[in-house]
């Protein structure tokens, strides 16, 4: 099992790599860290991997039932999918955000959820289906993007 960052970068499959880097970011910064204060790489991994899990479990409805500290309107999350080269997922975000006036979700969770459900009632909505169609490609795209950054992240290394 890979323990060093070099091992993660060089010897893990894409899904395991993304998951382990995400977990390490959570260990270093805490769950629910303000994503706007993370490095670009940490923010991108956190937003892509975190939202992949949430949307994969219950669609955009589940995503909008919660909040992302430092990304109240989900613009950083949408841009993270663009950054990793997954326009299909970014487009699914755009479509989901169309449920809100000016495509900006209310900060209030109850209002956000109500507005989304009014526009996209039920489960398995068109934004959900578009995201699900792209989700199998996301680990590869995220892993490739992160590896291409080729930057050291010593603060994420496990202590010896």
Task: Name some characteristics of this structure.
globular
Protein architecture, described:
Residues 37-148 form the DNA mimic protein DMP19 C-terminal domain. InterPro entries: DMP19_C. It holds the Pfam family DMP19. This is DNA mimic protein DMP19 C-terminal domain-containing protein. The structure is a single chain. With 160 residues, this protein is mostly helical. The protein has one domain (5-156). Helix content is 64%, strand content 0%. The protein has eight helices and no strands. It has helices at residues 5-11, 14-29, 40-65, 75-83, 87-97, 109-119, 126-135, 138-149. Helix 2 (14-29) packs across helix 3 and helix 5 (87-97) runs antiparallel to helix 7. The longest helix has 26 residues, at 40-65. The mean pLDDT is 89.
